[in-house]
Design brief:
Shape: globular
Number of strands: 4
Strand content: 15-25%
Number of helices: 4
Strand order of the largest sheet: 2-1-3-4
Distance between the termini: 12 Å
Radius of gyration: 12 Å
Helix content: 40-55%
Length: 94
């Protein structure tokens, strides 16, 4: 099972919105039950990245992230969303 962290400034608003979109994407592509998603603030993401398989964040990548990182901004704006979705799917298929 892959552990995905969704991070935003506060760990409440945009990370939750993006988590729902990523979950729908993964479930629609046959990954139901193959992942878990946790939301947190970007300040917590560096430490939590030690135990995560992937970080998706709606902020700039902070120094110290210890796992793969994907920008979650396209899930909010729609611009570049197809490419971001493909990155997530490629990660899951790896």
């Amino acid at each position: 099972m892959k552990h995905i962290i969704l991070a935003c400034g506060s760990g409440i608003a945009t990370s939750t919105a993006v988590a729902a979109k990523v979950s729908d994407l993964l479930n629609d592509n046959g990954f139901a039950g193959a992942y878990s998603i946790t939301t947190c603030s970007i300040a917590e993401a560096v430490e939590k990245s030690q135990d995560a398989d992937l970080i998706i964040a709606t902020t700039v990548k902070p120094d110290g992230i210890a796992c793969p990182f994907i920008s979650g901004i396209p899930f909010l704006t729609g611009m570049g969303r197809a490419a971001a979705e493909q990155q997530v799917l490629d990660f899951m298929n790896a």
